[in-house]
Amino acid sequence: MVRRWSDLTEAQRRTFVAMGVVQVVFAGAAWTDLALRPREFVRGRKAWWALAILVNFAGPLAYFRWGRRT
């Protein structure tokens, strides 16, 4: 079932926009951390993590959970 923006309720629109903002902020934080973190403190290749972060929510979450070394 294809829905149009105009078919959504106000609450659904707000939720959709809020989730988009959260995704952008989460990915931005992950990319910033990845860019500033020295290579020896990242598990695996930085280029692969940069691509993985593109995956909605799961990519940044995976990077923060498994990609960083302390």
TrEMBL record:
The chain crosses the membrane at residues 16-36, 48-66. InterPro entries: CLS_N. This is Phospholipase_D-nuclease N-terminal. It is a multi-pass membrane protein. It is found in: Cell membrane. Keywords: Cell membrane, Membrane, Transmembrane, Transmembrane helix. Pfam families: PLDc_N (PF13396). It comes from the Bacteria. It comes from Lentzea flaviverrucosa. GO terms for cellular component: plasma membrane. The keyword Transmembrane helix applies. Residues 29-68 form the Cardiolipin synthase N-terminal domain.
